[in-house]
């Protein structure tokens, strides 16, 4: 390994607070891998939670690895060095387990890149007995692990705090019993609810490429994999064990205050996946808040629906009374109230993010957002009143049934909001900016919108341009958006079945050239992305029990057909 690279990563760890470095020797070893850059991974609370959880187990040591920075990539891809862990700078091949924490589908190509850089066999079926066990977990694979099925020995579906301790115990016991890789994986599949070993399941297809069924290869294995969740989140805290000046949200100390959301917005995977709704109480959270304040950071309250927390004001007041400051990622605009806005202002919050999602009531009803134009105006007046001078507004385009006039309604809404903001701020602190953030709607598994297709990316591109053109001359308004071509890939990786693994592998072998990968592999990606699916068909993720009855999701979907 080059001396420069070694020093770079040594310095990175030296600037962290809260990392653990256990002694190698007797302990079983896990390297948790984040399939993106350090600055992103270190702002991911799920990743940090798994790190802390494994290290609390006295039989294991856990270290971290990330996708190398672009300027360092060549050293790894040329094969002169193997990808290594941050803490001990050990090659990934020296670990017993590599556990990928995977929150986003667009990071899937990075998983293959990292396995290659580590010199680990890409496909699970060809992996040798001596190679580490490759395990995957996180939101995107809990929704649908199938596009990654070829590359993982095992997935742990659901919340890590619930399933991971069982897995670690079984792994440790298997060492004592002298299990080989197959014996271990089979026992895991048989004994751990929520574990999924793809090689023990066969997918059968019909002539029209739809799934006929999915069956376990042995009768003792479950037909359905039940994703796991923690019943009482007040028995522990979930916060940032490591802080670093190099994380994306470096000024924050992230603390989870809730899981799940009862609102039922029909596009929202997080809202459905994390059910049932659970809130952490102030008593449980106090030590976490104090840890963050001690590290001189603003407390970032995280959760699926933070603004629905029944004690939100008490949490904020407690933090402020301890001389701390508080931040909330995004707030439901109908939950803003004067005390909350005033507390945010006292915490030096200059920007508040709100999500109207659509420009008119018809589409807001269709997505079941539950807010009105009056809610938007009221929220805005409150923010201006308390001197919040930057407002970020999230809108989606490409929603089911969207027409050109719905796009015009977005620009009309933005103009109305802006004029309202400027008028309301007259005589007070000057209003600074509205940032309109446009994201394309991507259908997600386990939601009532899972049967809808992705809107054609060329249509979406034109609609984005139309919004930009229409608002170009508006002072105080800034428009940002995502790139439609990556939305197509994200939809494919969200909605695909096992066959998509072949495309993913081809894209990797062609150094990220997706058009070439699509030509090389005889699988039609549009079949997954642009097809309006029938509620009768078996979807690739239907073997997972996400905790919601399929008929309930169908009922919600059917309601959208009437909007
Ligand atoms: S979008 Fe927000 S309010 Fe709606 S279900 Fe998701 S988390 Fe809940």
Low-confidence stretches: none
CATH topology of the domain at 3-226: Rossmann fold
User: Which ligands, by name, code or SMILES, are bound?
Assistant: iron/sulfur cluster
- Please tell me the CATH architecture of the domain at 3-226 by its name: 3-Layer(aba) Sandwich
Number of alpha- plus pi-helical segments: 21
**Widest sheet, order of strands:** 2-1-3-4-5-6
Q: Describe the biggest sheet?
A: 6 strands, mixed
Chain-averaged pLDDT: 94
Structural class by helix and strand composition: alpha/beta
- Work out the helicity level: 25-40%
* Principal-axes shape call: globular
Polypeptide structure, described:
- 39% of the residues lie in helices and 16% in strands.
- It has 563 residues and is of the alpha/beta class.
- The chain has a domain at 3-226: Response regulator (Rossmann fold).
- Helix 11 links the parallel strand 13 (298-302) and strand 14.
- The longest helix has 22 residues, at 404-425.
- Bound molecules: iron/sulfur cluster.
């Amino acid at each position: 390994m080059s001396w420069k690279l070694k020093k770079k990563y040594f310095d990175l760890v030296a600037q962290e607070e809260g990392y653990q470095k256990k002694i190698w020797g007797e302990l079983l070893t896990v390297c948790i891998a984040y399939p993106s850059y350090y600055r992103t991974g270190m702002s991911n609370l799920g990743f940090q939670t798994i790190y802390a959880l494994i290290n609390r187990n006295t039989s294991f040591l856990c270290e971290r690895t990330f996708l190398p920075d672009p300027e360092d990539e060549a050293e790894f891809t040329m094969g002169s060095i193997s990808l290594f862990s941050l803490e001990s700078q050990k090659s990934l091949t020296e670990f017993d387990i590599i556990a990928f924490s995977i929150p986003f589908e667009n990071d899937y190509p990075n998983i293959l890149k990292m396995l290659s850089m580590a010199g680990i066999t890409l496909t699970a079926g060809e992996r040798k007995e001596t190679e580490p066990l490759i395990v995957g977990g996180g939101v995107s694979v809990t929704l649908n692990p199938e596009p990654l099925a070829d590359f993982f020995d095992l997935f742990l579906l659901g919340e890590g705090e619930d399933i991971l301790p069982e897995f670690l115990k079984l792994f440790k016991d298997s060492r004592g019993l002298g299990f080989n890789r197959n014996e271990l994986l089979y026992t895991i599949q048989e004994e751990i609810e929520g574990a999924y070993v793809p090689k023990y399941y066969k997918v059968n297809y019909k002539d029209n490429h739809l799934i006929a069924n999915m069956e376990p290869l042995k009768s003792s294995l479950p037909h359905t994999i039940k994703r796991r969740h923690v019943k009482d989140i007040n028995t522990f805290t979930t916060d940032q064990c490591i802080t670093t000046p190099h994380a994306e949200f470096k000024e924050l100390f992230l603390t989870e205050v809730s899981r799940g959301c009862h609102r039922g917005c029909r596009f929202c995977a997080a809202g459905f996946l994390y059910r049932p709704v659970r809130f952490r109480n102030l008593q449980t959270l106090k030590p976490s808040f104090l840890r963050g304040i001690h590290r001189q950071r603003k407390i970032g309250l995280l959760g699926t629906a933070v603004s629905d927390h029944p004690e939100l004001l008490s949490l904020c007041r407690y933090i402020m009374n301890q001389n701390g400051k508080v931040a909330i990622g995004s707030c439901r605009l109908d939950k803003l109230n004067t005390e909350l806005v005033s507390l945010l202002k006292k915490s030096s919050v200059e920007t508040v993010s709100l999500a109207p999602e659509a420009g008119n009531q018809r589409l807001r009803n269709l997505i079941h957002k539950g807010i009105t134009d009056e809610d938007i105006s009221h929220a805005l007046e409150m923010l201006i009143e308390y001197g919040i001078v930057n407002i970020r507004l999230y809108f989606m385009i490409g929603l089911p049934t969207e027409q050109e006039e719905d796009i015009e309604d977005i620009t009309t809404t933005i103009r109305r909001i802006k004029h309202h903001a400027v008028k309301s701020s007259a005589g007070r602190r000057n209003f600074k900016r509205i940032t309109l953030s446009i994201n394309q709607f991507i259908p997600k598994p386990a939601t009532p919108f899972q049967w809808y297709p992705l809107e054609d990316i060329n249509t979406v591109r034109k609609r984005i341009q139309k919004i930009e053109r229409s608002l170009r001359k508006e002072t105080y308004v800034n428009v940002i958006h995502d790139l439609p071509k990556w939305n197509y890939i994200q939809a494919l990786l969200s909605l695909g079945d096992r066959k998509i693994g072949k495309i993913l592998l081809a894209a990797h072998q062609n150094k990220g050239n997706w058009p070439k990968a699509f030509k090389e592999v005889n699988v039609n990606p549009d079949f997954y992305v642009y097809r309006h699916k029938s509620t009768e068909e078996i979807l690739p993720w239907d073997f997972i029990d996400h905790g919601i009855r399929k008929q309930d999701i169908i009922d919600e979907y059917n309601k959208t057909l009437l909007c």
